[in-house]
Design brief:
about 400 residues, alpha/beta, Aspartate Aminotransferase, domain 1, Aspartate Aminotransferase, domain 2, 2 domains, 7-stranded mixed beta sheet, 13 strands, binds pyridoxal-5'-phosphate, binds (2S)-2-hydroxy-3-(4-hydroxyphenyl)propanoic acid
Length: about 400
């Protein structure tokens, strides 16, 4: 029956973890997947999360099904975290929202909702490059995928001019996916002034901005600062959509806690949109998983745990920034690389787009057991003070 099913390729990011696991060299480094590690290279469960788990255990809660749109205390706290307490649409109760299977599930719910109901377009514009999964998620949601210019290889920075041109040249009411902060894979974000201009042009063109916020807090260490673009768009009056993930900033990867939300014009319209979100979720998975949402709602809803969590977010972000400094320093001052490595410290968030070519990536993996994606992206969270110098030597060796 299945003889004609073709073998599919491994996922370009998750496939790297598999290759890494099969390598027995003690010096091996996994810089592929974007998952935080502490300075001894171990997965890190946040202390605020551990305490929330204790409280949940003490409270002896039941395990009943959640409603289709999830745990209300979670989606409400999550909206507050993203939009901020002064958000007008939040205060006016016109943000439709649902819990989702982390950020990926949120993108998929959003993609499907747009594909069903957005009256003006069936095409979504993604930045070049973008997170590899965006393409597949939106295609499988029934949307056509197109791209807009974002990264300039020659400056290893933002192609702001190209971006603005593409925004202006797209048909009115086009759908644009924007990374809210800590762009994956480039680590290049627009400045505040650039965001303001992007918002203006999107307004003029009446485009529909869909924010993917997978790293709130990971860029600057401050969740409010990292919400700048999102909140600016909201205060400029855009009716944005938002995919929000707690995988990275709360370390809840496998718990799959996230939300999808969308701003509507009125509480009545919100109710209608909520009803359709439920209708599209019900045949997919009925209702979302309880545990991660419960943990996040305890962390967000308890002021002590919340404070502790925010300081842990800062700690993770700071460790990554320290690794950027050390990596650049070793390259420039110790191993004597003649290339400019400023982009390592200029870039933001979990990743650095090193500029390594696919051939150099192949060599660094084969000869140095350093695993990263073909596009030259490294996850800085996979580096520690013990192996950062080794990495600098390896990079130097393949880029000589
Ligand atoms: N969007 C971007 C840009 C990401 O980098 C990720 C995770 O790496 C996600 C969304 C979604 O991740 P998750 O489904 O684990 O929340
Ligand atoms: O490193 C990245 O960009 C992500 C990580 O279900 C990831 O692809 C891994 C698993 C998953 C979602 C994201």
């Amino acid at each position: 029956t299945w003889a004609n099913v073709p073998q599919g390729p491994a996922d370009p990011i998750l496939g790297i973890t598999e290759a890494f696991k099969a390598d027995n060299d003690p010096k091996k480094m996994n810089l592929g997947v974007g998952a935080y590690r502490d300075d001894s290279g171990k997965p890190y469960v946040l202390s605020a999360v551990r305490k929330a788990e204790q409280l949940i255990l003490q409270d002896k809660l039941d395990k009943e099904y959640l409603p289709i749109n999830g745990l209300a205390s979670f989606t409400q706290s999550a909206a507050l975290l993203a939009y901020g307490k002064d958000s007008i649409p939040l205060i006016e109760k016109r943000i439709a929202a649902t819990q989702s299977i982390s950020g990926t599930g949120a993108l998929r719910i959003g993609g499907t909702f747009i594909s069903r109901f957005y009256p003006h377009a069936k095409k979504i514009y993604l930045p070049t490059p973008t997170w590899g999964n965006h393409n597949a998620v939106f295609k499988d949601s029934g949307l056509e995928v197109a791209s807009y210019r974002y990264f300039d290889k020659s400056t290893i920075g933002l192609d702001f001019k190209g971006l603005l041109e593409d925004l202006k040249n797209a048909p009115k009411h086009s759908i644009f996916l924007l990374h809210a902060c800590a762009h994956n894979p480039t680590g290049v974000d627009p400045t505040r002034e650039q965001w303001d201009e992007i918002s203006n042009i999107i307004k003029e063109q009446e485009h529909f901005p869909f924010f993917d916020m997978a790293y709130q807090g990971f860029a600057s260490g401050d969740t409010n600062r990292d919400a700048y673009a999102l909140r600016k768009f909201v205060s400029d009056g855009h009716h944005i959509a938002l995919a929000q993930s707690f995988a990275k900033n709360m370390g809840l990867y496998g718990e799959r806690a996230g939300t999808f939300s969308i701003i509507t014009s009125s509480p009545q319209e919100k109710t209608v949109v909520d009803s359709q979100l439920k209708i599209l979720i019900r045949p997919m998975y009925s209702n979302p998983p309880l545990n991660g949402a419960r943990i996040a709602s305890y962390v967000l809803g308890n002021s002590e745990l919340n404070q502790e969590w925010l300081s842990e977010v800062k700690l993770m972000a700071d460790r990554i920034i320290t690794m950027r400094d050390k990596l650049k320093n070793h390259l420039v001052n110790d191993v004597g690389s003649k290339h400019p490595w400023n982009h390592i410290t200029d870039q933001i968030g979990m990743f650095c787009f090193t500029g390594l070519t696919p051939q150099q990536v192949e060599r660094i993996t084969k000869e140095f057991h350093v695993y990263l994606t073909k596009d030259g992206r490294i996850s800085l969270a996979g580096i520690s003070s013990h192996n950062v110098k080794y990495l600098a030597e390896a990079i130097h060796e393949v880029t000589r």
